[in-house]
Amino acid sequence: MKFNIIRLSCLALLFYAFPLYNAQGAELSAKEYIKRSDDLMRGDTNQGIYTMHIKTPNWERALQLQVYNSGRTRTFIRILSPAKESGIGTLRVDSEMWNYLPNVEKTVKIPPSMMLQPWMGSDFANDDLVKESSIVEDYKHRIVGEKDLQDKTILKIELTPVPDAPVIWGKIYRWIRKEDYVPLKEAYYNEKGELIKTLYYLNEGRVSDRVIPRTWTMKSEIKQGHTTTIRLEAVEYNKPIPDDIYSLTHLKKIQ
Prior knowledge:
The chain is built from four helices and 13 strands. It is mainly beta. The chain has one domain: Clam (outer membrane lipoprotein receptor (LolB), chain A). Strands 6-5-4-3-2-1-13-12-11-10-9-8-7 form a 13-stranded antiparallel sheet, covered by helices on one side. A hairpin with a 2-residue loop joins strand 7 and strand 8. The chain is globular and about 55 Å long.
């Protein structure tokens, strides 16, 4: 009897921690699953040290990054190493984005037409890093597949742009674990329906106050042998971030 009570308590805790139904008692919509998955990866804020490893058939390099994110509207990235790129910064506030180049002491505003361009030669586009578009508000969502894998249910959700949305992709598919909203994979298609790249979420573990994938590998589907891997090294969630981090003054301030 004691074992059964403990078991029931654990199941109840899991249910309330990861509810699969909304406040009205209906099963979550595709959009709600996407939002909860996006919230899990973002938090209210997140900040810390990331590493980025870029690999091509001809060369490889690694970057260490200091990153700050607040909600879906503000991002700050500073390259810490190697020395050649140290001090380069990227700032996004709402729909505006800037890069700072310390070697020439120049701030460059990035136009919307450049959001598809690779960030620092990686397989992540500017939009991937700073999320100028919102996968929650700028896309329509539809569950197109569901399968069981290792006693878990995996949802395949199709995202297609809403009219006039400031997006760079013609279609995105995201695979999400239904029970806890953890993302597993994303596939990005252009407006012609061609698969351009695939993002794999790997190495699940505790990061600050949550369990999420700690390694993100973007694989180009059009450039053979091109991959970029981001690893979360020392990241904290839901810790206050001063507003002045997200300013042009701070972008140009090199320690």
